[in-house]
Amino acid sequence: MLNSGQIIQDRYQLQSQCGRTATGRQTWLAIDRQTQEKVIIKLLAFSPQMAWEELKLFEREAQVLQALNHPRIPHYRDYFSLDQSVGGGLPWFGLVQDYIPGSSLQDLLDQGHRFTESQVKKIAKDILKILIYLHELSPPVLHRDIKPSNLILDDSEQIYLVDFGAVQAQASVTGVTFTVVGTSGYAPLEQFWGRAVAASDLYALGATLIHLLTNTFPADLPQKEARIHFQDRISLNPNFVHWIEQITEISLEKRLQTSREALELLKAGKIRPQKNQNMTPQRALIKKLNQPFYSTINVDYTPEHLKIYLPPKGFGKLFNLEIGCSHLLILYFGFGFFLSICIPMFLSNPLLFWFLCSLLFVSGFLWIFFLTDEKTWVEFDHTQFRILRKSRGIQYRLLSASLSDIIGVFMEKKRSKYEIVIRTTSQTYRIGEMFVAEECAWLTQKIQDWLYPH
């Protein structure tokens, strides 16, 4: 267990943990005892539950940071590993980088700070200059997780881009990759399909600017004509509104393609002329995905409706149940309570004891019997969508919402598997929790193609 004041690597003295991090990850503010300077240490625990993709991303972040040299990106300092005796029974990997004094844009939003149009324009220009540096490297470097919490504003109003945990050197991409990273609400659709490009960072920048201007999380804003609709929330220069719209186009073909072009247009206060909508692009930037050969999902796709049938997963459904600490505590105390009642009962009335045990066994068997046969139907028409679940011929759950309420359809990772998330203006709907990446990406794209046929 790592604690404040602890010295690791005979060099770094931990001061305090920074922010909220995922399980198995810690970020510490520390003092480098050799230089007496503050540093940031990111730590990743190597545990049996950790997916290999997490370690690969962590190592990639260290490798990429080591090669970067930009005044608005934290400099790489060190990379190390801690053995089990130091890490509280688990080995840890550590990445050390410069400490950037200041507040994240997310912290400022949480504190009620309202950004003016001129402030947001300056932030946009500064971030675009960083992206020009990253995207024009050879090979290009994609950040893939631009959002308010990863942008630090210091006392002199300088902006810094931090947290390269989702970074990718584009030369390593061949075809479609399925290490899905990014944050829902900021990452564009092609990124959730594993096909991030330089314009994907521009979309995330645009979504971030919308959040700063409206003080509203982008996924909570409505969509109109496949765009985040924010214009009615704030009074802005029309050219600036159109510029933001051009970097947040859901279609890659319509979106501004390079950071340099985006910066030049923003400085000039101009917008790019609209392309001829009747022209067929020479090359689709998003590869059309095919249904994997092993997939048993049935799709009925017509202009009038989209019907999806997800067959039962059998005992795989049972083994995939997510059991957290709260569930284990309930089971522990429930079992203890059961024993405290049943042991005296067994001694005084064995017949009643065996009856209760049989009842418990039968109820558990019936739960497994129905769970392993759960089938799901998802249906879209031009007015609404419905999610219907049945098991052993019994319908037990029906969810529905208006099609006009849909904000977006995303692909999210849940442990080692994936699920499809349909976010509406009032609720979040989840479809499946046992998809592999390729199957989930294909079905997500299928739904998006039907919702946005153009």
Automatic annotation (TrEMBL):
Cited CDD domains: STKc_PknB_like
InterPro entries xref list: Kinase-like_dom_sf, Prot_kinase_dom, Ser/Thr_kinase_AS
PROSITE patterns associated with the record: PROTEIN_KINASE_DOM, PROTEIN_KINASE_ST
One of the record's GO molecular function terms: ATP binding
Key words of the record: ATP-binding, Kinase, Membrane, Nucleotide-binding, Serine/threonine-protein kinase, Transferase, Transmembrane, Transmembrane helix
Transmembrane annotation, as ranges: 328-347, 353-372
Pfam family for this entry, one: Pkinase
Matches recorded under Gene3D superfamilies: Transferase(Phosphotransferase) domain 1
Protein name (record): Serine/threonine protein kinase
Residue ranges constituting the Protein kinase domain according to the UniProt record: 12-266
Organism (species): Planktothrix tepida PCC 9214
